[in-house]
Amino acid sequence: MNSATPGSAQTPVALALAATFAAAACTPDTGEENGAAAGENEAENAAVIRDPLPEERRFARLAQLTFEGENAEAYYSSDGQRLIFQRRHEGEYECDQIFTIGVEGGDPQLVSTGLGRTTCSYFFPDDSRIVYSSTHHAAPECPPPPDMRRGYVWALYDFDIYTANPDGSDVQPIFSSPGYDAEATLAPDGSRIVFTSTRDGDLDIYTMNPDGSGVRQLTNEPGYDGGPFFSPDGSKIVYRARYPESEEELADYQALLADGLVRPGVLDIYVMDADGSNQVRLTDNGAANFAPFFHPSGEKVIFSSNLNDPSSRDFDLFLVNLDGTGLEQVTFSDEFESFPMFSPDGRHLVFGSNRHGSHEGNTNIFIAEWIDDLP
Q1: CATH class of 12-370
Q2: Which pLDDT value is given to residue 235?
Q3: What is the DSSP secondary-structure string of 243-307?
Q4: pTM for this predicted structure
């Protein structure tokens, strides 16, 4: 493993995190029967059944829902019948836009404006509205990519948070600040939205009412706090974070932040109470751990990590108890896998993966039938 610090220009972890947006290529299924069926079904945009890997004991069945472009961050509607996700595919839109799709596959339906760049979509608990972030208020064009002369960095675009009807109509802004406002998800009872913002000069986690009022700051330690989700009972929030561990790393982080950038590096999974108290660190392994989501029991967290090889783009899904014990590997593909979410009834898991990819950077949406009680 490279001994470069997380704040340096091109750490292995930073390069590995690039898989989130530019994942490595993988080999399509070469089985004759499976390949023929996939070709027929893909033409109709229907889901294709895939075999889980032998080690993937939690998966009774696996289905692939998308096949082209980059498709990620798919999250269930409260009735479990649809998914909302971000997608970028050549010939459609220059930047990521928000789409919905049925859990059996089919044609993705555009529900964002088609302008600017969008990210981080989610259904309201009663499916009456959707929430997502967009830059379309700033300009209709796709914002430029970040300048990589300072190493591998992510751009903190001028996202604002919007809600809309599930078909994309009636777009309403609910939160805006002069910077990054994104990563919004809702409490199970719909009472609060949790999100990440730079409104107070750092990347912190906040909650607000569904109409954008009653904003409360939950984290305040210098560093990147993000990707928050409520527990099933709404009492806790799980999130990813990185707090600089040296003056040099802190200076690098703050200089980039001032220019609307952040350098991905080592990330860890944390849990806190819904009011921001009692923060508990669940991982401490020197890897990039992100995209956490609660198990339906509320007693475990599933997340993505390259902890088996922090210098690689091989991200797998893992389960861990709320005290950081009982780590269990869930997926075993040699490709990038992330953004897990359990269905409302706990019987299925949706995630993004490069397995069975048709070309380099092809990230698709998969649904697994979940086995909770292993033999």
Answers
A1: mainly beta
A2: 98
A3: ---SHHHHHHHHHHHHTTEE----BEEEEEETTS-S-EE---SSSBEEEEEE-TTSSEEEEEE-T
A4: 0.88
